[in-house]
Amino acid sequence: KQEVTQIPAALSVPEGENLVLNCSFTDSAIYNLQWFRQDPGKGLTSLLLIQSSQREQTSGRLNASLDKSSGRSTLYIAASQPGDSATYLCAVNTGNQFYFGTGTSLTVIP
Amino acid sequence: EAQVTQNPRYLITVTGKKLTVTCSQNMNHEYMSWYRQDPGLGLRQIYYSMNVEVTDKGDVPEGYKVSRKEKRNFPLILESPSPNQTSLYFCASCKVSSGANVLTFGAGSRLTVL
Description:
Chain A is 0% helix and 58% strand. Chain A is mainly beta.
């Protein structure tokens, strides 16, 4: 069964810093990997999707990379802002099912 | 607006009283699924459906039922709710494609079983 781990569980940084969130998974047979953002009490919003054949995807200040062979993905956030404060989750798609990590809670301090 | 709609958003019920949480999407997505989110455990898949009349168990299906009679709707049924089903529930949908299937989530339904 696919296991997805996110480290660290929580992260606090001053505004303006660049930061990296990590996601690892145990089975490299995936279709894609998605990064989501979740605000307190809200649903999940998709940030980036990387297909299994891709190495990275970029959207604005966000860059996600995928190393399928080593079972790792990173989400890079440039020039962090207080509005980036949220929980970030990664999910791997094995075809029929999606497996989620427990998330990294990010606080950006003004 | 493209969206996944869940109802009710909040519900308090008692043990054993059957309830249904509805989920509807307007994006013509083939794939729909239900998750529960619990502190420290993350999101876990309850059931999923690849298309109409096709449903399958996820990782935590015990105590739940689903049906997919129409493409747009995927209700979650708790026949006899118990306190351990108190959780935050999410419905999600996506197209079935070769790998670019972005999951779209509903806003969530917070269920408390007393």
